[in-house]
Amino acid sequence: MSDHVRIYEVGPRDGLQNEDMLIPAERKVALIDLLSQAGFEKIEATSFVSPKWVPQLADAEAVLAGITRKPGTDYAALTPNMKGYERALAAGVDEVAVFASASEGFSRKNINCSIAESLVRFAPLLDAAKSDGVPVRGYVSCVIACPYDGPVASEAVRDVAQALFDMGCYEVSLGDTIGAGTPESVATMLETVLPRLPAERLAGHFHDTRDNALDNVMAALALGLRVFDSAVGGLGGCPYAPGAKGNLATGPLVALLEQSGFSTGIDREALAKAEQYLRSITASA
Ligand code: HMG
Ligand code: MG
């Protein structure tokens, strides 16, 4: 099994989306440029969602236009519908991500539709991306528990993840949106998903509400996952998931992986510069 772990840096999106104070686009650009220097293969730069729903990321076009693209780094963005996809494509993203939920309550609060409706909405986006040659990542939120519906059945996670693969997502990231997971519950969930879907195409996205995220990464590593999402400085959460405090912080994740014998390709000194800059531009990092 590979000893390389890909870290998908989601701070500029999953981190900043939760900041109340509007951060000017040029500061987001500067943060992304510092992250690019740290050697990430993937940086989720922003979201092309409704600016009424997430005002902080209303400047997605300006952010993508401002960054200095580093060869070898893919710049990604969330796209909930065709309108978002078209905006993202015009802005020159390298890949997009659709986001579904394993729980109905979160689906309605986050994207204003049922799970089934969200999949119908994603289908034309996946078709367009295929003909445009744009890779699409999928997210499944609330893989352990939902802030509205409570505990979530692992079979629901498996079925939504399977639907996203069937539509053409190259990878599906399993989101513990409110950080409810423990190594045991994460392993139980993965043991339901893995007989159907290969570990090489799954990612772990663990919010760190209860300080369990690193332990959850270890549980997922033991079951073969080699891609993890994290945010510089542990910033963030989700405006539609009360209690979803921080994301798993990238620095401690890199440290844990490297201590455990995995390579990440991340330059820790460069990452520290991005963390330092983040602290200077946000209230919560
Ligand atoms: P809606 O209100 O049902 O959409 O929202 P609508 O199609 O009826 O459109 C309403 C208005 O929004 C219209 O404008 C549209 O043009 C506009 P109006 O006519 O009123 O002026 N609109 C858009 N504008 C720009 N870009 C777009 C877009 N789409 C519609 N793409 C919608 C539905 C999905 C748009 C909305 O619910 C939304 O934007 N939700 C996004 C919420 C969000 O970003 N949540 C956080 C990300 S998910 C997350 O954090 C979880 C994750 O990290 C994994 C985990 O941790 O579990 C990924
Ligand atoms: Mg998240």
From TrEMBL:
Domain Pyruvate carboxyltransferase: 5-272
Enzyme class (EC, first level): lyase
EC number, UniProt record: 4.1.3.4
Pathway(s) served: Metabolic intermediate metabolism; (S)-3-hydroxy-3-methylglutaryl-CoA degradation; acetoacetate from (S)-3-hydroxy-3-methylglutaryl-CoA: step 1/1
Gene3D superfamilies reported for this sequence: Aldolase class I
Pfam families named among the record's database cross-references: HMGL-like
MF terms (GO), sorted A to Z: hydroxymethylglutaryl-CoA lyase activity; metal ion binding
GO biological process, one term: ketone body biosynthetic process
InterPro entries: Aldolase_TIM (IPR013785), HMGL (IPR043594), PYR_CT (IPR000891)
Entries under PANTHER family matching the protein: HYDROXYMETHYLGLUTARYL-COA LYASE
Similarity comment: family membership: Belongs to the HMG-CoA lyase family.
Protein name (record): hydroxymethylglutaryl-CoA lyase
Biological source species: Martelella mediterranea DSM 17316
Lineage, highest ranks first: Bacteria, Pseudomonadati, Pseudomonadota, Alphaproteobacteria, Hyphomicrobiales
